[in-house]
Amino acid sequence: MQFLIAPSFAKSLLFIYAIFHFFSGAAFLYSEMHEASAEELFNAGLYEKAEAAYLKMLRSNEQDLSPSSNALLQLSQLYTITHQYQKMNDLLKEFTHPQNDPALTYFAGLAYSRLHKHTQALKAFQNYLSSKDPSYTNEAHFEIALIYFSEKEYAKSLNELKQINHPKTNLQTLVAIYFARIYLQTDRAQEAIQLLNSHDVKVSDNDSTKFEIAFLTGDAHFLLREYEKAIPSLLQAADRSQDTALWYSDCLYQLGMSYLYSGDYEKATSAFHEFLKNFPEERGFLGLGEAYYLSGDHLNAEKLLSSHQFTTKNGQKAALLLQIKASPTYSARNSLYSKLIEMDPDSGSAWYYYALNDMEEGILLKSHNKYEEAEKMLLKAIDSFEKGLSLLGFSDKAMAAQALKYQAMAAHQNSQNLNGMHILEKLMDSSFWEATKDQDEILYLHGFFSLKQGLPDIAARSLQAAAAMKQQFGPVALKCLADSHYLAKNYSAAKSVYLQLTDSFPDSPLCAESLFFAAKSSAYLDEDPALRKKYLSQIFESYPQSPFAPESYFLYYSYQEYLQGDKQAIRHLQHFSSHFPATPFLIEANFLAGLNSRLNRKSPTGKWISKKNLTLAIDYFQEAETLFDLYAKEGTKISSSLFNYYISVRYRSTLERAKANLTIANESQGAKRQIYLNYATEVFKKIVDDFQDPANKYTAVLWQESPYPLIYQESLYELAKSYLAQGNDPAADQILSQMIAKYTATRSYYLSLSLFEKGLIALKQKDFAKSLELFQLADTTGKDLLSTDQKLDLWIQISLCYSGLMQYDLAILTLSKVVNDETISHLRLKAMFMRANLYTLDHRPELARKQLESLAQKKGEWAIKAKQQLEKEHDYFSF
Q1: Can you name the residues that pair with 610 across neighbouring β-strands?
Q2: Cβ distance 443 to 477 under 8 Å?
């Protein structure tokens, strides 16, 4: 600090002349001439000559010193400018006089202060303030504030700064800087930033103070862990032309650490190299070592840390800890931790880190199913934590709290079921609790351990307490509590806590998952489906990047709505890829869209919703297959828990694609029919080949799930049908025989269908006895499995066999089963027509006529045929 008094030569002459003219005479004029000469030298910046002139003047007037107050003031200012505080101190002691200007008392205080004689300085400044002289009042308060600041009495320093009123611009800025410094020392960094950015801080571009302001701003952001914000300010401060400022080394160090914590290891390395070039301090070597380590350059990290001689015990410990970080194996780390303990066996922190290493290794061993080794390692960790706790005592409560936390975690991992919950209760009831920075995590762990101990009420209290702190583990705690309710099938409580999480922590990454399970809970509670849809839509609209978003979009409509061809549901599926272009749920979405395109859809009132489009269906099925193959190759998008399911969807899509081709063939003629038959046959054969290939990794999964996979059965059956459509009955019969031979069950859907198709082949060959046997087996094996039309058609085929064997009564009896079946089917009318023909063959024309007349009263194809036959054979006329 430099404070100058602006001299007024004319006023000084008048003042001295008026008071001392009579007494001084020629001596006074001599003094005045020397003072004027000294002042001119002073104003010209010729301080050595000015000093000599002032001293000569003072020495010549030793008998009456009071008139030379102005000379003393000027000389005091000169010593202040030239930082000669010892000279100033000696001068003011030598020329002390009660009539001297009170301002000299201020300069005496300034000299004591700069010579670090704070007691004398404070006394001088307080004496000056008592004089009520206004010249240096603000400066005196500021100097007192600096003394208190240097002695770390920040409250007193702050009080003195508040006494300063309307300071000049340069002092105003200095006052603001020291306010900021005090804020930084008293954990009020945010206030420091606000002050440094305010109008109270005014500096020109040429003022070197701007560098200190930049440093303090960077320092504040650094303390707040806002490293990316700290970097620009620290760079500006580090750009000063000279590095003599006391804060300069801190500036360069913090710049390096800011880069380090921001993840820019290359710039951190450069910054620490620059720091070490100017300040070869231990912290610089440690920072550089950590930059090497974090950038993956473990070789240079090890080389630096092992070669540098760290002189302080703290530096040696820090270097060892960094070497430990760079060590890839447990044994290497354990050896270094042992050195740390050897260096300081009574260090609680060394035992703490030693135990932490053991605990991490124990958990790793347990994850690799090495339970016996894990057990020993975890018990060793628990003992080491206890040793660390006994040494830490009350010297480091924060680390002691961490030791208890990790000891509880190690106990929880131990198979002897040591009670981690009780260890945490010991922490929460101890004097360490107030020093625990992560109280929310401790409460969460206590709740989690309590659940494992089967104490849900205690768990709920701890988990809700963790959530109430509104910190990092709040959402995790609520998720844990909600999950426990969900697993216990207490869906009402689960839903309530899931929604509490989303309301209390709307920015948490757990919100989407919580809404997802709130939706599932709502479904289990059989609540209004609109509520479930509300939660699901919140996920894919508000959290589209969440892994739960695609599934929520897919589940927005129910499977029943998709399968029934609900117009809005199908449109929703068709827009899926525009919202989520890379999700395995697109496989299923395309599959369902394909199924919908295979069918005609009408509303309950008979209006068309959509007409079948088999070529579009084929495209959807093909896309489902392509997506599965792509995602399976990538190996990341389909979770392991769903992979087997998607294999089924993939082969089901292939099968449905082949069936769509077969349907087109059956509805076509000529070349088109043959082309689509070939397509269908080729795809069916590919599926069958995959299932018959033991090296196929996908079908192998389906074989593991079933001794006779349903997709394989259906593919064989459909392949046989495609051969039949091509007139290749022998190939079809061979496949059907192979199918039937593999069945061990007495009742099976595709066994029944296969027997039925073989029966048709035999019937075509007029082998009525064989076909009857096959049809009867089909009836037995398909009982309660066949659809109404399949069952009635089977009975009709059985009646044809009886007719072929001329067992008309049995044929008629079988057709009567069809006619009398309590279902709605056109096959009942067909059976009536066939029964009329059998009556004719059995020489019962009256019954035949009655049957035809009854049938003619109905509508449809068989009613028309009945009328035509009546007209032809019985002179029947209808009106």
Answers
A1: 601
A2: yes
Q: Do residues 236 and 217 touch, judged by C-beta distance below 8 A?
A: no
* In contact, 318 and 308? CB cutoff 8 Å: no
Answer whether residue 81 shows pLDDT above 60: yes
Give the whole-angstrom CA distance, residue 176 versus residue 695: 78
The residues near 240 (Cβ < 8 Å, ≥ 6 apart) are 208, 211, 248
Neighbouring-strand partners of residue 602: 608
Transcribe 245-279 into DSSP letters.
STTHHHHHHHHHHHHHHHT-HHHHHHHHHHHHHH-
Q: Mean pLDDT lowest for which of 195-204, 586-595, 722-731, 736-745? A: 195-204
Chain CA centroid to CA 333, Å: 30
β-strands 601-602, 608-610: how paired?
A: antiparallel
Beta partners for 764? none
Q: Which pLDDT tens digit goes with each residue over 795-810?
A: 999 999 999 999 999 9
pLDDT of residue 715: 96
- The whole-number pLDDT of residue 493 equals 97
- Kindly report each contact of residues 850-857 with a partner whose C-beta sits within 8 Å and lies 24 or more positions away, as own/partner: 852/876, 855/829
CA distances, 525 to each of 492, 501, 515, 522, 626 (Å) = 7, 19, 15, 5, 38
Find the largest Cα–Cα distance for the chain.
Answer: 173
What is the model's pTM?
0.64
Tokens representing residue 5 in the block: 């008094």
Each residue's pLDDT tens digit, 503-537: 999 999 999 999 999 999 999 999 999 999 999 99
Which tops the pLDDT comparison, 22 or 409? 409
Range list of β-strands (E), 18-136: none
Q: Which of 286, 365, 366 is nearest to 326 (CA)?
A: 286
> In this predicted structure, what is the pLDDT of residue 239?
82
Question: DSSP label at 449?
Answer: H
What does the alpha-carbon distance between residue 497 and residue 466 come to, in Å, rounded to a whole number?
13
| Buried b or exposed e, range 257-287, using 16+ CB within 10 angstroms | bbbbbbebbebbbbbbeebbeeeeebbbbbb
Above 80 in pLDDT, residue 32?
no
- Please check whether residue 51 is in contact with residue 80, taking contact to mean a CB–CB distance below 8 angstroms: no
Q: At which residue do the structure tokens 């003619």 appear? A: 856
CB neighbour list of residue 680: distance below 8 Å, 6 or more residues apart: 658, 659, 661, 662, 665, 718, 722
Residue 497 Cα distances to 444, 461, 476, 480, 527, angstroms? 15, 13, 12, 10, 17
In the chain, the percentage of residues whose pLDDT exceeds 90 is 62
Helix orientation angle between 169-185 and 137-150, rounded to the nearest 10 degrees: 20
Reference 485, options 445, 447, 512, 511; nearest CA is 447
What residues have CB less than 8 Å from 828, skipping those under 6 apart? 792, 818, 819, 821
| Separation of alpha carbons 165 and 159, rounded Å | 12
Which residue matches tokens 């609900």? Answer: 566
The tokens for 399 are 């680390």
Supply the pLDDT for residue 418. 60
pLDDT of residue 112: 93
Closest by CA to 848, choosing from 879, 821, 876, is 876
Q: Which one, of 794, 781, 783, lies nearest residue 825 by Cα?
A: 794
Distance between CA atoms of residues 146 and 713, nearest Å: 92
- Statement: residue 632 has pLDDT above 60: yes
Q: Is the pLDDT of residue 30 over 60?
A: no
* Long-range CB pairs of 72-75, under 8 A, 24+ apart, other chains included: 72/100, 72/101, 72/104, 73/5, 73/101, 73/103, 73/104, 73/107, 74/5, 74/7, 74/38, 74/39, 74/42, 74/50, 75/51
* Bridge partners of residue 608, in order along the sequence: 602
Cα 584 to Cα 420: distance, rounded to the nearest angstrom: 41
pLDDT given for residue 17 in this prediction: 29
